[in-house]
Amino acid sequence: MSTKKKILIGEDERPMAKALELKLNSVGFEAKAVFNGNEVIEELTTNKYDLLLLDLIMPKLGGLEVIREAGKEQNIIVVSAVGQDKVVKEAKDLGAKGYIVKPFDNKQVIEEINKVLG
Ligand SMILES: [Mg+2]
Fold first, then answer.
1. HSE on the CB side for 26, CA within 13 Å?
2. What CATH number is associated with residue 61?
3. Which of 39, 44, 94, 109 could form a disulfide with 34 if both were Cys (CB 3.0 to 4.6 A apart)?
4. For residue 57, is it within any domain?
5. Does a structural domain hold residue 97?
6. Distance 3 CA to ligand 1 centre (A)
């Protein structure tokens, strides 16, 4: 049985999503990237993830809606270019446990993941 923590990445910029997926897999997580909000919800209803890394501006279903649908039991860290206090507050009020403003470096993302999962 795998003890790797499962991380879902919801990010519509595919190269960024795939790069993050590769990086997280290389440091011992089991990461999977999907590319719009509907796919995130589909994936969360099919599989259990220890953590969701979530972009806010995505086609079909935006990140804030995803947080609402995923519910407060789901660990979520928002990774977004949107850094306005109002949006950060809304995401956190809806249940996001962390918020990283793009551009990010991988080290920062991994530290934040470990903080939430630890
Ligand atoms: Mg986006």
1. 8
2. 3.40.50.2300
3. 39
4. yes
5. yes
6. 30
Look at the chain and report how many structural domains it folds into: 1
Nearest-5° angle of CA 90, CA 44, CA 67?
5
Closest CA to 11 of 75, 81, 74: 81
Q: What is the pLDDT of residues 63-97, one digit of tens each?
A: 999 999 999 999 999 999 999 999 999 999 999 99
Domain hosting residue 15, numbered range: 6-117
Is the full-model pTM beyond 0.85?
yes
Distance 55 CA to ligand 1 centre (A): 6
State both tokens at 28: 């011992």
Position 1 in a domain: no
62 CA → ligand 1 middle, Å:
9
Q: What spacing in Å lies between the alpha carbon of 79 and ligand 1's midpoint? A: 9
